[in-house]
Amino acid sequence: MQLFTATKRRFSELSEQEVLALAISSEEEDGRIYANYAEKLRKDFPASAAVFDGMAEEENTHRAWLIDLHRRRFGETIPVIRREHVAGFYPRRPVWLMENLGIERIRAEAESMEAEAANFYAKAAARSTDAATRKLLGDLAAAEAKHKETADALEKEHLGPEARATEEREAAKQFLLIWVQPGLAGLMDGSVSTLAPIFAAAFATHDTFSTFLVGLAAAIGAGISMALTEAFSDDGVLTGRGSPFKRGLSSGVMTAIGGLGHALPYLIPDFWTATIVAIIIVFIELWAIAWIRWKYMETPFFRAAMQIVLGGALVFAAGILIGSA
Prior knowledge:
The chain is mostly helical. It contains 12 helices and 2 strands.
């Protein structure tokens, strides 16, 4: 860590030219990030994409202003210095880490970017003893603070109540299609389909650890199967159901969780204690599924509960009967 830190310059050690070069590269990076946000949102959230287009344009305008200032003070050659070259400078997350974020998280990230930049420059200006450097840093802090005002103005222009409501409905729809529906299908499959093999093994052997191994294998196998089935069944291009990787991940993980829920109690050595705990967990799982269907799928709760509990009870009884035969 010390070796890594030693390769960076302290902000206090930078010359005025280097500070200006750092500001130029920072404005360029932020402008590209906003442009990427706009491109990501353009299809499903065109109004928000327009906001980020405007913010990217603002960043590019300030970058051009800074380049002109550098040209007047220091000439045409701009030193190569970026955030990662300066110790303690505020970082920016790589774009690929932001690609899977929802629209509200992207808006919050952009607001945080502007606030961090303004705060950094303001504190740097307060610590500076050189009048010219203090003025430069103060101007940069004011410019970053103005970006927030610009973003607010752009949101008022492009994101009226109707546009925001439309985008919120689209975001909720995407969340439902990508995460909730595949995850619910996986949870139902994992919770119900693994009941029979787990309880059949339990009542056939009365060996808790062997039962746990059967449950673990069933849960993981079902999770992999559901993940692949969901991911390969629809690429999301024509149906608009979103990323097959995300849907497969949601379905696979929730399937495994559904199966592991009533397999884990069989790590308890005592057979009847483990079985009673597993039955309680099965009851909780089935009611959780009914609640999710009521909450997100608009299925009447009583109907959802009856369908899930009845189906689970039949599979549960089948497992016990087969295991006891």
